[in-house]
Amino acid sequence: MPLAVPISFAQFWAFSVSGLVFFLFLVRTAAGRRPESGSKRDRRSQLGIIIQMIGFFVVGFGRVRFDLPALDPVSIAATATILCLMGGAIGLFAASSRELGKNWSLVARMRSDHVLVRSGPYAHVRHPIYLGMLLFLLSLAVALGHWLQLIVGLPLFLIGTRIRTKSEDELLEAQFGLEFTDYARSTPALIPRLG
Q1: Region of 119 on the Ramachandran plot (φ > 0 left; ψ -120 to 50 alpha; else beta)
Q2: DSSP string of 67-107, one letter each residue
Q3: Residue 56, SS3 per DSSP
Q4: At what angle do helices 147-176 and 178-186 cross, to 10 degrees?
Q5: Is 175 a domain residue?
Q6: How far, in Å, CA of 161 to CA of 130, rounded?
Q7: Distance between CA atoms of residues 181 and 89, nearest Å
Q8: Which residue range(s) make up the domain with 54?
Q9: Contact between 106 and 159 (Cβ < 8 Å)
Q10: Does 112 map to a domain?
């Protein structure tokens, strides 16, 4: 039994191009960071990063079957889904990193001049960048036809994300106390409330 469902070159290229745009935003954001001193870091978030990346690897690894014509209705639907998911991922990352400004970091840490950001995407979820990464992961599965791998990769990604969000929330609570507690009570961690 094959592990990959048939895909078209259209959906593969839609993901490849939008994935490149996502990574360009990531590189631009990371390159704009200045060295810092006096920040408190939580090394547990590195474990979360590793587990998230294993989830991505599981979903991305495996055979790809380019057996679907580009104009097949399934291909058109998959390509549209990829563009929507990746548009959401790119939009969330760009808006979130812009709102965070100098607070943005790959590893959970707290600057001495850290600010609790509650605007932009942070008005709806506490960790919108991880929501963007989740959309990226789902788009990867659609792009490669790796639905069975997603069954294993998605829980791994969510475990890694939980480690990272818990680590970040603890640092924010230690820094901001009741202000963060109120924010956490009113704003979901990852999935926005509907309505």
Answers
A1: beta
A2: -S-TTSHHHHHHHHHHHHHHHHHHHHHHHHHHHHGGG--SS
A3: helix
A4: 150
A5: yes
A6: 7
A7: 27
A8: 9-29+41-186
A9: no
A10: yes
- Determine, yes or no, domain membership for 35: no
* Closest residue by Cα to residue 89 from 143, 156, 165: 143
CB atoms within 10 A of CB 171: 20
**Ordered DSSP codes for 124-193:** T-S-HHHHHHHHHHHHHHHHHT-HHHHHHHHHHHHHHHHHHHHHHHHHHHHHHTHHHHHHHHHS-SSSPP
Strand 109-110 versus strand 40-41 pairing type: antiparallel
Q: Is residue 150 part of a domain?
A: yes
How many domains does the chain fold into?
A: 1
Provide the CATH number for the domain around residue 156.
1.20.120.1630
> Cα dist. 128→94, 146, 151, 183, 188 in Å?
10, 25, 22, 14, 10
pLDDT digits (tens), the chain, 195 positions: 456 899 999 999 999 999 999 999 888 888 876 655 556 667 788 999 999 999 999 999 999 999 999 999 999 999 999 999 999 999 999 999 999 887 777 777 777 778 899 999 999 999 999 999 999 999 999 999 999 999 999 999 999 999 999 999 999 999 899 999 999 999 999 999 876
User: d(Cα 138, Cα 153) in Å, to the nearest integer?
Assistant: 10
H/E stretch holding 19 reads helix 9-31
Q: Whole-prediction pTM value?
A: 0.91
